[in-house]
Amino acid sequence: MNPLSGVLGEAWQMYKAHARHLLAIAFVIYLAAAVIAALFELAGGTIGALLGSLVDIVAAFLLQATLVKAVQDVRDGRVDLSLGETVRAATPYLGAVAGASILAGIAITVGLILLIVPGLYLITIWAVIVPVIVLEQSGALASFGRSYQLVKGRGWHVFWTLVLMYIILLAVSLVLGLIFSALPHALGRGLSSVISGTLIAPFLALVVTLVYYRLSANSQEPSVPGENYGGFGQTQLRRVRNTASGLPDDLFQAGRRRQLAPGAPDGPGEKGIEPNGLPVTPGPRRPSPSAASGASPGPWRARPGRTAARLRR
Questions:
Q1: What does the pLDDT read at residue 269?
Q2: Among 1, 133, 154, 262, which residue has the least CB neighbours within 10 Å?
C-alpha cells in the first residue's frame, strides 16, 4: 500500500484552508529579502551583487524552515503561532538547514552532471532532510541518515510524488512568467520572483512536510524526543509497548487484573465493579468463627453436603 496516496490532494486542501497565513509568511520573507538585496545592488560593485545574492540564499533557507514550522502549527486545523512567532521558532534551525541544503545541493548537482540517475536517487532519499531538522531537532549531518531511513522501502512512491509536484510547480511558474513578461524587464523579474515564490513555496513545504509525517508514521525506526506530531506545542504521542498477544501492554495488564481479581480496580484512583455493574462498596469485615470463639484456626475441611447445596443454588 502506498503511504503517500492522496498526499498532493491533502496538501492542496491545507493550502486553501490556511492560504492567508502561509502566503503571508512567504510574502514577507521574500519581500524583505528582495528589498535588502536591491539595496546592496544599488550600492554598486561586485561586492554589492554578492551580498545581495547571499541575502537571497539565506532568505530561501529561512523560508524553508519557517514554512515547515508553519505546516506543523496548522496541521491540527488552527493557527496557534503568529507570523513573527513562527519565524522566531524556525530561526534556531537556520544553520542546520543551510548546511544540509548546501551539502545536498552540491552532491545532487554532481550526481546530475555525471549520469543524472545518481542525482535523482539523492533527491529522493534526501527529500525530507529539512522536516527532519526542524521537527526532530536533528543536526545537519544526522538528517541525511534519518531521511534515508524514512524513505527506505518507499523510494518509488517518494520519487513519483516529487515528480508530480515539480510538474505542477513548473506549470505555475510558466504561467506566471508569461503574465509578467509584458512588464519592463527589471520590474517583471522582481515581481515574478516575489509573487511566484510566494505562491509556490508554501505548497512545496506542505507536500514535503506531509510526506515526512506519512513516512514517519509508517516507519519502524524510532524517532528522537524532539519530534512533534500535532500542532505547535502539542504533547508528543506516548509510545505503547505491545505484548506477545498483540495488545498494548496497558490493556493487557488491565485484563490480567480482572481475570485474577474480578471487580478489582484497574489502577490507582479507580473503583472496583461488581458483576451486576454496581461499584464495589467496602463494608465492615466480619471476624471468622474461630477468631470470635478465641480458638486457633485449624485446617479447613470441606463439608460435602453444604458444598452440594451451594452448587444447587
A1: 46
A2: 1
DSSP string, the chain: --TTTTHHHHHHHHHHHTHHHHHHHHHHHHHHHHHHHHHHHHT-HHHHHHHHHHHHHHHHHHHHHHHHHHHHHHTTSS--S-HHHHHHHHGGGHHHHHHHHHHHHHHHHHHHHHTSHHHHHHHHHTTTHHHHHHHH---HHHHHHHHHHHHTT-HHHHHHHHHHHHHHHHHHHHHHHHHHTTS-HHHHHHHHHHHHHHHHHHHHHHHHHHHHHHHHHT-SSPPPTT---SSTTPPPPPP--B-TTSSBHHHHHHHHHHHHSTT--SSTT---B-TTSPBP---PPPPPHHHHHTPPP------HHHHHHHHH-
Task: Give the dihedral sign, CA 27/30/33/38.
Answer: negative
| CB 204 within 8 Å of CB 165 | yes
- Beta pairing partners, 38: none
Question: pLDDT per residue over 231-278, tens digit each?
Answer: 434 434 444 444 444 444 544 455 555 554 555 554 444 445 444 445
Q: How crowded is the C-beta side of 260, counted as CA atoms within 13 Å?
A: 8
Name the residue type at position 233.
Answer: G
Q: Residue 220 CB: number of other CB atoms within 10 A?
A: 7
**Alpha-carbon distance 28 to 111, whole Å?**
34
239, three cell numbers: 509510545
Q: What is the mean pLDDT of residues 57-66?
A: 93
